[in-house]
Amino acid sequence: MGQILKKNRKYRIMLVLCSGLILAAAAAFFHFYSGFPIPLVCAWYEITGLYCPGCGAGRACRAILQFHFVEAFCYNPVFVLLLPLFGLYFAVRITDWTVTGGNHTDRKISVRLLIVILILVLVYGVIRNIPFYPFALLAPGGLAEILL
Question: How many domains does the chain have?
Fold first, then answer.
């Protein structure tokens, strides 16, 4: 299957289009469906009682799909700020793969940039667990006190 996709651009285009339709259908479903029977639980938080850098990202995605961007920012501001970069990366990467069948994108991304982003995310994960004001505002939903 991998060789067929690598050699035939039509199959790659069809795969990307079908995947895009499935993702659009899932996004539309979560946009219009407001209830969710199973809450999203962070295993790290359940085990340690500390917020990981990703805590609140699921609720932020849900809020973004319902066009509640300020609410999403309140759940996880770093995730919301990095989301356009992730989207740009995936768009460029998928376009590159669809057109060429290879990966020419990853070599052009600066390793220093990735290290800086990683360090910022880890520092954010530490800072959001400091139980004093203003750091406590970085807990999931904490910024709602100020912004909502």
Answer: 1
Predicted confidence at residue 38, as pLDDT, reads: 64
Task: Give the pLDDT of residue 86.
Answer: 92
Q: Could you tell me if 125 and 52 are in contact, meaning their C-beta atoms sit under 8 angstroms apart?
A: yes
- Give residue-wise pLDDT tens across range 19-58: 999 999 988 888 887 666 666 778 888 999 999 999 989 8
pLDDT for 142 equals 87
The single-letter DSSP state of residue 136 is G
H-only helix segments in 33-143:
43-48, 57-65, 69-75, 77-100, 111-127
Q: How far apart are CA 134 and CA 127, in angstroms?
A: 10
Rounded CA-CA distance 61/145 in Å is 20
CA distances to 106, 120, 133 from 77, rounded to whole Å, are 26, 12, 16
Measure the CA–CA gap between 125 and 139, rounded to whole angstroms: 10
- Round to whole Å and give the CA distance between 46 and 69: 26
pTM exceeds 0.85 for this model:
no
Which amino acid is it at 96? D
Whole domain around residue 94: which residue ranges? 2-147
